Amino acid sequence: MGKVKNFFVALGKWFNLKDRPKRILIIALCLVLAGGLLGSMVQTDFYRYRVYSETIETVPVSSKGEALYEETGVKSWSTADIYQPKSASAEDPVPLVFVVPGIQRTKETQASFCIELVRRGYAVICIDPYGQGESSSSYESQSATQEGYGLFSWMDYLFENPDGKFDWVDFDRVGACGHSAGGNACQKLAEREGRMAAENKTVSRVHGVYITGYIRGLTWSNTACNVGISYSQNDEGAFQNSTAQKKAEILAKDPADRTEEEEWWLTVGNADLRYAQESIDLVNYQLKRGGSEPIDEVEIGFQYGNPYQYNYVIVNNETALHALQPYDSATIAHLVEFFDYTFDSESGLSSSNQLWWLKEAGGALSLVGGFMFICALFVLLLRTRAFQSIGKGMPPRNADQKVKGRIIFWISFVVSAVIACVLYMVCVRLSVEWFPEAAGSSQTWFFPQRFTNAVMLWAVFNGLIGIAIFFLTWGLKYAIDYFAAKKKGAAEGEALPVADVHASYRSILNPLKLGWKDALKTVGMAAILICAFFALDYLIYGIFHTDMRVLFISARVSFSWRAILAIAMYIPFFFLFYFSNSLRANCSMRPANWKEWLSKLIAVLSNTVGLIAIVFIQYIPMIASGQIGYTGTVGPEWLFVNLLFSIIPMMAALPLFNRFFFNRTGSVWLGPIVTCVIFIVMTGGATTIYFAL
User: Fold this and answer.
1) Reported pTM
2) How many domains does the chain have?
3) Exposure winner among 159, 236, 372, 555, fewest CB in 10 A?
4) With DSSP H G I counted as helix, E B as strand and the rest as coil, what are the percentages for the chain, rounded to 5?
5) Which domain CATH number covers 151?
6) pLDDT score of 8 more than 70
7) Residues 381-405, buried b or exposed e (16+ Cβ, 10 A)?
8) How far apart are CA 559 and CA 546, in angstroms?
């Protein structure tokens, strides 16, 4: 009994909440669990739904219904989250909507669509596209067009209804919606199902499709269902649409030869669906099917056709940026209105009544809690005998910067920002040349992440340049102060004595020193913190079927061994950049005359200004002329700019985490090891991976 009593006494002392790190640890754990609970309640409509993942084995099929690559004998697989109403049954079936993400997105990123459909009584199957998330790669480089990203296989699986698995689905009311390339997949499903219906002399199995963020190149032959389009007036990809091409042809003419109508066309927005040929063709196709007269201008938000004749069509034209459409309340409202109307379903909820943002808030709580947890755990581990030796505390600040030193620093700051800005698009283009298989969406074992490859090249070049700039500026300032001291002696207020100059500049490099024992402990500490972070992520996923994420920033769980292998391939190269950031933020941005908050702010700016400049270069022309700055010479460069929505916040947080670890270890090594692995796992686990089957 005495031992038991002593155990609980010791446990009570450990949980003494007057101890700040322990208090933060408990608060962080509560945040993680509270965020997971909130997300779970929202996505299950307060537990009226069962949400679970399922993987099916597939033989890829084309948009024409043909089996692809049958001769290889290799099968693919597709994973989806299924939102099943607990009250649904064969006697009381419910409509079902497939949700398909676009490129670089996984099923978790479409939670806003899923949640608002669920809240209105629909069942949902949200898939991971081929080459993304838990689904396998595909032999098809145009997977969305040819295979519906796996949607075609799921449609067949649903209607095969093995063992009555989906007897709770109303098979007369099955729809699909998707964003960006996922919208393309839905349109191809509509064509495929229409073709099959014509051959079998039946109605289309898909009742309606709703497409967001995609109109380029859509064709409607054989489509035999209701259709809705939602395209933003500020979509960055609008330069690819027919209106933009028409305007380019007009601009190529001599102004004196332009007609009045052509001058008018130059005032039309590239994404104005009132006059876009894509939207006019869609509406006229549906009107023709219903025996109505064609139109030459689309009325936005007008309900054309008849949903009971499967020729209903509506065109919406919101204002969100392309990547933000799944988080745009107007887009989501139009989506649920489409299915409510075409399914003749009435939930009693207004389309503006939306709670999806609560799941994002819950994910944000969990994400913040996860990082708080490892920071508190790190401080507590430093107290243990095993790790005490690496807890050297905050090193002395560097000497005050003199005038010449400040000039050198700010020149290097500007040069670094310009290089970071210019190099990004250079690396995007290099990634196409150096990694052609991944760039062409082909299966490969050699750096298979198409979008990560460009960022990796940028990180390598910036990391090496950053290290070089650090040592060049360090050496230059060292030489200036040394020769000034040698020439003028130790004249007060003019220069340091030579010995002090040597000591001062050598001390700047002390954080680079690490004995082999401390090196092993540093790696061990990093491993514990990394494992703790993802253990928390898996914990809330296992309990709540949610993870740590908010908008574009996510710590995705349950990624495949292929993703883990790919991430391991990228980490050594990214580490150059993460180490470079730690070196510069902690060894050159800590002069004694800077307050800590100012030092951190400048470190954050130095790591983000160049990338923020790219965003300005992209969107200022769009504000001025309606067309983005980076339209692409070697592919969809604008999609690489969209990556910055997730990269910039991480780059802002990076120097803060590096400084946190540095201030407690006096070393530049632990921070980049921990942050590199966590951030690259976060980034790499949620993007396209074209690994060979």
Assistant:
1) 0.86
2) 2
3) 159
4) 60, 10, 30
5) 3.40.50.1820
6) no
7) bbeeeebeebbeeebeebbebbeeb
8) 14
